[in-house]
Design a protein that fits this description.
Shape: globular
Number of helices: 8
Helix content: 10-25%
Length: 293
């Protein structure tokens, strides 16, 4: 039975988190606040649960959800070949409104949709979200709305759209503050030779460049390197834009799985392929990723 908990009350919050944890373990969906908008979440390592999430939203596998994590050290348990510049951004903006698209750990047995071997990771800056993620471990999360409709900024607004497809609604008040527009996280693709923004959002390009000056903005093409005189057709002829790199790295050892396990739980033994705009083959476009928490 669908239940809403008022998480502004300590007693209700504790009951709600307990019920939400149980619902996730039973492969059901829950709605909870993040620092951007409300999200609908499911067990990232259960194909059945992720399918329920996509069906609840009216969404296809071509638009896989990102994964929210409780702590930064879960990054290496879920992703591989993490660039140093991507780590800099994670350290600077996590928890916060930044999503990083990375190569997924090939040893993990998850199915988030058509991710082409990538995973989109974020650590949200919200107490309720952090408490839930600490209890459950990584969650597949999408904005709490039906596809094509505005994201829910309260649990009540999300329930109007998602109804009984969600087991637990955790109401924490407006996200963001009442009267403010909902702003999704900024998405940065870190699977290629250069970090590039694929969706503008809560973290600006200027803020990103304070830590990684070489980040490419949305739609930007890197300046071509000058070709050798004997090969160049013209002195100012531009070289092809750099392609998106995406080959999967060798499988990690068992220790990598343990880093992604929920606090007090057993090591994660499944995999996550996450919704994120990055391709796994040279010059292949990344999967579509819509506004997410």
């Amino acid at each position: 039975m669908t239940t809403t908990y008022n998480c502004t009350s300590d007693d209700e919050r504790a009951k709600g988190l307990e019920h939400a944890q149980r619902a996730i373990s039973e492969k059901k969906c829950v709605v909870f606040p993040t620092d951007t908008v409300y999200g609908i979440a499911a067990d990232a390592f259960s194909p059945q649960a992720v399918t329920m999430l996509l069906v609840s939203k009216g969404r296809s596998r071509a638009m896989p959800p990102p994964v929210l994590i409780p702590r930064i050290n879960a990054l290496d348990g879920l992703a591989t070949d993490v660039p140093a510049d991507a780590r800099k951004l994670a350290e600077a903006f996590w928890p916060g409104g930044l999503t990083l698209i990375l190569h997924a750990q090939p040893s993990l047995d998850w199915d988030l949709g058509e991710t082409r071997g990538t995973v989109a990771l974020r650590m949200p800056d919200d107490e309720i979200a952090q408490e839930l993620l600490t209890l459950t471990g990584p969650l597949a999360v999408s904005s709490a709305n039906r596809t094509g409709h505005a994201p829910g900024q309260t649990a009540a607004a999300a329930r109007e759209q998602l109804a009984d497809s969600v087991e637990v609604y955790l109401e924490g008040g407006f996200r963001p503050l009442e009267g403010e527009a909902a702003v999704p996280s900024t998405i940065v693709d870190a699977t290629g030779p250069r970090l590039r923004v694929v969706r503008n959002g809560a973290v600006t390009l200027d803020q990103l460049r304070e830590h990684v000056p070489g980040v490419l903005g949305l739609g930007e093409i890197p300046m071509a390197e000058e070709e050798p005189a004997e090969e160049a057709a013209a002195p100012d002829e531009a070289a092809p834009a750099e392609a998106v790199h995406a080959e999967a790295a060798p499988a990690p050892d068992e220790a990598a799985r343990a880093q992604a396990a929920p606090a007090g739980g057993s090591p994660v033994v499944e995999t996550a392929a996450v919704e994120s705009p990055s391709g796994e083959h040279t010059a292949v476009p990344a999967p579509v990723r819509n506004p997410e928490p």
